[in-house]
Every structure is written in structure tokens, then in C-alpha cells.
User: Which sequence fits this backbone?
């Protein structure tokens, strides 16, 4: 995951310089992404304080320079031609814990922050262990895994509002969270996340009630049970590693953006049509995955199931970009891929699933200078 937006200015502003910050020119961006793909930026600025972040944004906006915000780079696909503008890497630090209230600077490494909350005996984000990227990205895409979403614990997000030219504090409700979505993702040209505040739970060293069946099974308990925090975190890390979802520089199965596609959410009528396609293609006894998805009877199904049943199995591909050998949702760079190699594979998967089941998959990573 990465706190990412690609935007132009909302209007001209008075320039502010960044004297303490030394920008790099024609700077490689691939090393800043988990895919290790993409061309250079015209200019790269690394900001280590909130003031530097705001100043860099104002400077780019005043000059009319396109701006790319980069956090951990784990949810980002940059085109081979790179980015013609200023790339701003947010490398701010700050971990403040007061009772069960947590505040993280946007540049904090998310996996480290989760580990520290578990060590402090606080529940609420322990099942989000192992997700690469920065804390500032978590509210943008409402990061979630193994039965937890940050929307359940985020209380406020401090952000720079480029339209109002001021720093604002948004409540949970104002963030407009939904499945892998938020106000920040809806308006990437407006907000730059600076800090995220959470309300966690002191449950005497126990986890939040486990919601995800796979996690509960791995722990030998029932859904809804609590387990020691450390056990919950370690189990999730083990499950993620088994799917290639924990970064390892030596393992090309982890040179990815994690889940490349979101799970489709269908209306009842759409799901009925989908189920009929499944019966026609796979037989009347095959039941596709179905999970309740909010009000109105919407149904969520599994992108991984769709990809696999459309013929794109683990390890699919013969080129430098392939589906992970551990998980069908991860598209990977085997070491020599280009962004175009990756996109060609993504387009093949999207077209194959659409032809097989009538569902168009939506990519989760943000694309820069390219389209799926």
C-alpha cells in the first residue's frame, strides 16, 4: 500500500522553497515501489516532516507542476516512461501512544507500527500485520485483511487540503470509508494525508474477536473468539507469507502489489447472472463464493476464485511478469519485467474473467501514466 495521488494544482499559489531538502533530478522511482517497476521522475523530493510535506505540495502547486505522492510504494504501478513532474516521497516519522489512542505520522512503516501496538497489548489492527507500505496509505484505500479494516479503528485523519490551502482534521464519518475506498481515494487531487489517529482496545492482551474463518481455523478456535495478540499477529504473518504477501527481496513472488484486483461487489441480479454463468461453465453443482456486502442485499465474491476458475492458475505466464506461484491475486515481477509486461498480463486476466463470467475485475493499485 502507498499513500499515492497523481494530480495537478487546484489553482496557482505563492511558491515556498524547501531549503533543507535537496531534490534529485531524473530520479529512479522503481526502487521506491514493491513491484520494482517504472521509469524516473523529473524531480524527487523526500520530506521528513509535516512542514516539509506541505511546503513541497504548495511549491509544486504554485509552479503548476504535476505532483506524485509516494509512501511505501506497495500499491503503485508506474509507467515505463516514468513521471514528468515532482515525486514527493513522504518519509515522516512519529508513533505516539496515549492509553489506547494511537497517532501515526504518514511515513511510519505500517508493519512496524502494528508490531508495536501488539507489544503494547492493544487490539484492533493485529490482523493487518505484514501489509507493506506506509501508515498514511491505510485510510486512503481503507486497508483491510483477515477480517479487519482500518475504518473500524481510525478516529481522525490529519491532511493537507490543497483546495483550501490549509491543514484539516477529518473525522471517521467524514472520511467516507467503504470497501477499499475513502474520501481520499475519491478525491486524490485534494488531500495529502499527514497523520492518522486510531482508537484501539485494551483487552488484557487478547486480540479483537476473530472475524475471518481462515484465521480462526489456523488458530484452532471459532470465529468470534479472542486469542493472545501475539498469536494472532504471528498467525496472520504466517498465512500471508504462505501466499507471498510478505515482502522478501529474495522471493520474486513478493515483488508485487499484493492483491492486484479487488473482490467484486454485485447486486442480487448481477449475482444471479454470474451464478448462471458458473453453472453453464463449471457445472450446476459448483457454487461461487458469496459474502454479504452491506445494505441492499449486495453480494461480494472472490476475485481469486474468478481468476483461478477462468484458467489463470498459480504461476500462470511464461514471460517476466507472471501470476504468483502462491496466490492467484498477486501479479509479480520475476526480476526482468517492464511495466508493460505487467499490464499485458493484467489485461489478459481481466479479459479472460470477463469472457468466462461476465465480471470485469478492477485493479487495486494506483496507476501512473498507464491504464489497465
Assistant:
Amino acid at each position: 500500500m502507498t499513500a499515492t495521488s497523481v494530480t495537478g494544482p487546484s489553482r496557482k499559489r505563492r511558491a515556498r522553497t524547501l531549503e533543507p531538502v535537496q531534490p534529485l533530478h531524473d530520479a529512479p522511482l522503481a526502487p521506491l515501489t514493491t513491484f520494482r517497476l517504472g521509469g524516473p521522475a523529473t524531480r524527487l523530493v523526500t520530506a521528513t516532516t509535516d512542514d516539509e510535506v506541505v511546503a513541497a505540495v504548495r511549491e509544486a502547486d504554485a509552479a503548476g507542476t504535476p505532483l506524485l505522492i509516494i509512501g511505501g510504494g506497495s500499491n503503485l504501478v508506474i509507467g515505463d516512461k516514468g513521471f514528468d513532474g515532482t515525486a514527493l516521497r513522504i518519509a515522516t516519522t512519529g508513533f505516539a501512544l496515549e492509553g489506547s489512542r494511537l497517532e501515526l505520522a504518514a511515513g511510519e512503516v505500517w508493519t512496524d507500527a502494528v508490531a508495536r501496538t501488539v507489544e503494547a497489548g492493544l487490539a484492533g489492527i493485529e490482523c493487518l500485520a505484514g501489509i507493506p507500505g506506509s501508515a498514511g496509505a491505510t485510510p486512503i484505500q481503507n486497508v483491510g485483511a483477515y477480517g479487519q479494516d482500518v475504518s473500524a479503528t481510525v478516529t481522525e485523519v490529519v491532511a493537507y487540503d490543497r483546495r483550501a490551502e490549509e491543514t484539516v482534521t477529518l473525522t471517521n464519518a467524514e472520511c467516507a470509508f467503504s470497501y477499499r475506498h475513502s474520501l481520499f481515494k475519491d478525491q486524490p487531487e485534494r488531500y495529502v494525508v499527514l497523520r492518522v489517529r486510531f482508537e484501539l482496545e485494551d483487552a488484557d492482551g487478547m486480540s479483537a474477536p476473530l472475524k475471518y474463518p481462515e484465521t480462526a481455523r489456523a488458530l484452532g478456535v471459532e470465529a468470534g473468539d479472542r486469542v493472545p495478540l501475539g498469536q494472532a499477529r504471528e498467525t496472520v504473518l504466517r498465512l500471508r507469507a504462505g501466499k507471498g504477501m510478505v515482502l522478501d527481496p529474495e522471493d520474486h513472488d513478493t515483488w508485487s502489489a499484493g492483491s492486484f484486483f479487488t473482490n467484486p461487489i454485485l447486486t442480487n441480479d448481477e449475482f444471479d447472472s454470474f451464478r448462471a454463468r458458473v453453472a453453464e461453465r463449471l457445472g450446476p453443482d459448483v457454487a461461487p463464493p458469496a459474502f454479504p456486502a452491506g445494505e441492499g442485499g449486495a453480494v461480494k465474491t472472490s476475485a481469486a476464485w474468478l481468476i483461478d476458475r477462468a484458467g489463470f492458475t498459480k504461476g500462470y505466464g511464461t514471460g517476466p511478469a507472471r501470476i504468483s506461484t502462491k496466490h492467484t491475486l498477486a501479479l509479480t515481477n520475476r526480476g526482468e519485467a517492464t511495466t508493460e509486461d505487467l499490464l499485458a498480463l493484467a489485461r489478459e486476466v481481466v479479459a479472460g474473467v470477463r469472457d468466462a463470467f461476465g465480471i470485469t475485475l478492477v485493479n487495486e493499485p494506483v496507476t501512473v501514466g498507464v491504464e489497465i
About this structure: The mean pLDDT is 93.
